[in-house]
């Protein structure tokens, strides 16, 4: 079952998720020194760059893992129409996404349970609280 790609309402802060990390004072001081000396514009710029460098360093292994686990990469949106079509066809969906999986706001918890067999998202899942609760036992 092919799902459709839709433009989502932009969130404050763009297409990012806020993450909190704990750093030692010496590490934090080194970051501040690099920012002060102009290597990075701020702490966030340094941390984002470090993360991207590590992801790039392991890109080949990650690419193989994405293929092995049959993950959809990027944004995957499931509309009410997608789920109703799957239900009419007698199919169930196994949602596997590396990035953002989005289930439309007009999808009822009953429709989600009837059509979604499993959910595995590495990144973020956007769905109503009711749909998330309905799929809690199917989410890894």
TrEMBL record:
Protein name per the record: CopG family transcriptional regulator
Source taxon at top rank: Bacteria
UniProt-listed GO biological process terms: regulation of DNA-templated transcription
Stored CDD domains: RHH_NikR_HicB-like
Lineage: Bacteria, Pseudomonadati, Pseudomonadota, Alphaproteobacteria, Acetobacterales
Any Pfam family hit: RHH_8
């Amino acid at each position: 079952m092919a799902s459709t790609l839709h433009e989502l309402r932009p969130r404050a802060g763009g297409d990012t998720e806020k993450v909190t990390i704990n750093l030692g004072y010496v590490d934090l001081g080194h970051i501040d020194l690099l920012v002060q000396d102009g290597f990075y514009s701020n702490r966030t710029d340094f941390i984002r760059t470090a993360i991207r460098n590590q992801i790039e360093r392991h890109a080949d292994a990650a690419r193989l893992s994405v293929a092995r686990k049959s993950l959809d990469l990027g944004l995957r949106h499931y509309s009410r129409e997608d789920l109703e079509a799957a239900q009419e066809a007698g199919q169930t969906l196994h949602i596997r996404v590396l990035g953002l999986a989005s289930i439309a706001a007009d999808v009822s918890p009953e429709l989600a349970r009837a059509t979604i067999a499993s959910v595995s998202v590495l990144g973020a899942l956007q769905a109503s609280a009711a749909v998330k609760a309905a799929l809690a036992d199917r989410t890894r």
